[in-house]
Design brief:
Elements: H1 14-21, H2 23-45, H3 50-77, H4 86-104, H5 115-133, H6 136-146, H7 152-187, H8 197-220, H9 233-241, H10 244-274, H11 279-307, H12 309-323, H13 338-356, H14 358-374, H15 379-384, H16 386-404, E1 409-412, E2 419-422, H17 424-446
Helix pairs in contact: 1-7, 2-7, 2-8, 2-10, 3-5, 3-6, 3-16, 4-5, 4-8, 6-14, 7-11, 10-13, 10-16, 10-17, 11-12, 11-13, 12-13, 12-17
């Protein structure tokens, strides 16, 4: 295929869409637990200071900022007999599975009471986890190469169906099993209590599942078309940096990412520490989350098809801006915070469900838009470059939420016993709301997400 040829993307079967989306089941579980529960596990459970845990998580974001871009960039550059994307999957998927297990089960290897060792352990495995998670960039670059533009919302829906099945599994595990383990850790002075099988076995299964699902598509998905990219890596980088709309999109993703990372880092700690939900409450909250996830996944996808990507994304931002100050209701005295917990988790599911639908589509569309101008499809670098800005902002969000949750404690004199938590858990919602309001106005004024060639 010559440089000036346009890549022909044939219509694909639902089986291929399903196959392509399946690794998201494993990655959504492990990233969900890492994003939702890691901060809570190490601070509320293992009693690592929130500032230290926030610092470590910010280092993880910085790691993925560089590695996602690097993997996307390099995967564009070299076409092998396995194609451009598969070699990265084969190499890094096993590292991701192993890092998941060691990050979430430190008690198998180290003395949890030694905070210096605990800090070092979390730092090393969080960095390795985030570095290997960058395998998702070459994987995601396949969308622009394998699927025509009109199929991408449906492909993204398939991916997000797996995402939300995984998120449902992750939510049940985090809300029911992991929080119970954290409560046990809170109740005893010695952190080196035995790790229950209902905690360790699922985590090991999740790590192995992630490896297996990536290996299935590595051997079953067809190799992407062999098209030439005559320009070198530096030229490609210059091209995308000069793509004004793309850079505006990247900044939008970064600004909003500051808020999204604060939500995912603090949400479980809010439920566990501020609302003090019981095991039964968590089951009800988890079921409510599952129902919300699948309903809003469908609704947001239909909204994209009816009113376009930009208007739909603006509605996602507005919903978040209006909803997130709900965390302030935690200041009100209540006999039981279950209803507030359900409303909170359902609202978060609806908001994040809308946001997570977009990056898969947007980066593939921008890459194809560039292809129509330059004659070259640089899907890898278009998928990987945004991670630099996004994860820099997310690192700031993790560091910021660590600082917020280091604010003084509020004590509730409730029966059967009083409990305390950082006042930061009650005020982080309005703070994130302001950040996403900025994202809303910025997106409305500067960002293009719908293209004329999509209508042809």
């Amino acid at each position: 295929m010559s440089e000036s040829d346009e890549i022909v993307r044939e219509r694909t079967s639902n089986f291929k869409k399903t196959l392509f989306g399946s690794p998201r089941l494993g990655t959504s579980i492990v990233l969900g637990i890492e994003g939702w529960a890691l901060f809570t596990l190490y601070t509320s459970g293992y009693r690592l200071p929130p500032f230290q845990a926030g610092f470590i998580i910010s280092m993880g974001y910085l790691t993925i900022a560089l590695s996602q871009f690097l993997f996307g960039w390099l995967s564009d550059a070299k076409y092998t007999r396995w194609g451009r994307r598969k070699p990265y999957i084969i190499i890094f998927a096993p590292i991701l599975g192993m890092a998941t297990i060691f990050l979430l089960l430190p008690g198998f290897m180290i003395d949890l009471n030694d905070k210096k060792i605990l800090f070092t352990w979390m730092l090393v495995w969080e960095v390795l986890f985030r570095f290997s998670y960058s395998v998702t960039t070459p994987y995601q670059a396949w969308m622009a190469e394998e699927f025509p533009v009109e199929e991408r919302p449906k492909v993204s829906q398939f991916q997000n169906t797996f995402n939300y099945i995984g998120n449902g599994i992750m939510a049940l595990f985090s809300l029911i099993i992991l929080t119970s383990y954290i409560d046990d850790l809170k109740a005893v002075a010695d952190l080196n209590i035995s790790i229950p099988l209902d905690l360790s076995i699922p985590i090991i299964i999740f790590g192995i599942m992630t490896i297996v699902l990536f290996y299935i598509i590595a051997f079953k998905m067809p190799i992407e078309p062999h098209y030439k990219i005559e320009s070198n890596l530096i030229e490609n980088l210059k091209t995308i940096v000069k793509n004004k709309n793309f850079m505006l999109i990247v900044l939008m993703v970064g600004i909003s990412g500051l808020g999204w990372s604060m939500i995912t880092t603090a949400m479980l700690k809010y439920l566990d520490d501020a609302l003090n939900l019981s095991d039964t409450d968590y089951i009800i909250a988890a079921v409510s989350l599952l129902l919300t996830i699948f309903i809003f996944l469908y609704l947001w996808r239909r909204a994209i098809q009816k009113i376009g990507k930009k208007r739909t994304l603006l509605y996602v931002f507005l919903l978040a801006v209006i909803f997130l100050p709900i965390t302030l209701l935690g200041f009100l005295p209540m006999d039981n915070f279950l209803i507030l917990g359900i409303i909170f988790i359902v609202g978060i599911g609806a908001i994040l469900g809308g946001w997570y639908l977009f990056p898969y589509i947007v980066y593939a569309d921008v890459a194809e838009d560039d292809e129509k101008l330059t004659g070259e499809l640089k899907a890898g670098i278009y998928s990987g470059f945004p991670s630099i800005i996004l994860n820099l902002f997310q690192a700031g969000g993790a560091f910021f939420i660590g600082a917020i949750l280091s604010l003084p404690d509020l004590t509730r004199d409730y029966v059967p016993e009083p409990y305390s938590f950082s006042i930061g858990l009650l005020i982080f919602g309005p703070i994130v709301s302001v950040i996403l309001l900025i994202s809303y106005f910025y997106t409305r004024k500067f960002v293009q997400l719908d293209y004329e060639w999509e209508k042809k």
